[in-house]
Amino acid sequence: MTDLSADLALALDLADQADAISLERFRSVDLHVSTKPDRTPVTDADQAVERAIRDGLGASRPHDGILGEEYGTEAGTGAGTGRQWIIDPIDGTANFLRGVPIWGTLIALAVDAVPVLGVVSAPALGQRWWGATSLGAYTSQHGGAARRLNVSGVTDLADAALSYNSLPGWDDAGRLQQIVELTREVWRARAIGDMWSYMLVAEGAIDIAGEFDLQPYDMAALQPIVEEAGGRFTSVDGASGPWHGSALATNGALHDEVLRRLAAR
């Protein structure tokens, strides 16, 4: 695997720029909100953050491709290199526009469709998480010292904490019965929401997080962080990568059992 240190440094710098833009617009009285064709909201902050990240990548990595939530796919000039940056400028836009601080910028690098680097920056929470293949996973709060991330050692569902994020999403996917049954098996179940659930898995604060109705840019940055912290990240059906419309992150020890519990019937 190519050393990803320079790419990680770039992604962290881009996250700094993104935070400056998004925090300035958070809880702004003149925030502009519109509705996209898929009926999801978008703010002027989402668009400004993605433009800034794309500009930075264009200057520093012109040969790489880009996939972003707001402006789609850009091929770059390095056809066949297999490097694609995947951006969610503000994950948790619904929270952002309502003044709820659970939102963040997600920046990932995938090589040959495998996410190998991820940065999740949540400036309203004062916390950032990052990780890259063979470089480990870390977090810092309010710009302080980095702390290495490690998932929990929980091995029994009865001792596990679960974030299911959205019951309607499980219902729409035909898995409502499965997730409700799982909530009865675990120690604690909450809908923490958006990227934070998965970062709490990486921190070892909770043990299981999952949901449906996701896009690659919702997940790509999460995967390397969870995996470098010692966990597992798949779809709810066990498929690898962020390409299958759902996510399941665990501490690894519980993953196979949770997959069995959530399987389609």
Describe what you observe in this structure:
- With 265 residues, the chain is an alpha+beta fold.
- The chain has two domains: 144 residues, Fructose-1,6-Bisphosphatase, Chain A, domain 1, CATH 3.30.540.10; 106 residues, D-Maltodextrin-Binding Protein, domain 2 (3-Layer(aba) Sandwich), CATH 3.40.190.80.
- It has nine helices and 15 strands.
- Strands 4-3-5-6-7-8-9-10 form an eight-stranded mixed sheet, with helices on both faces.
- Helix 1 packs antiparallel against helix 2 and helix 6 packs parallel to helix 8.
- It is globular, with a radius of gyration of 18 Å.
- The termini are far apart.
Secondary structure elements and pairings:
Blueprint lengths: L4 H21 L7 E3 L5 E3 H17 L4 E4 L3 E3 L8 E9 L1 H6 L5 E8 L2 E9 L4 E6 L3 E6 L5 E2 L12 E3 L3 H6 L3 H10 L2 E3 L3 H10 L4 E5 L3 H4 L2 H7 L3 E3 L11 E5 L4 H8 L3
Helix pairs in contact: 1-2, 6-8
What key phrases describe this protein's structure?
single chain, 265 residues, alpha+beta, Fructose-1,6-Bisphosphatase, Chain A, domain 1, D-Maltodextrin-Binding Protein, domain 2, 2 domains, eight-stranded mixed β-sheet, five-stranded mixed β-sheet, 9 helices, 34% helix
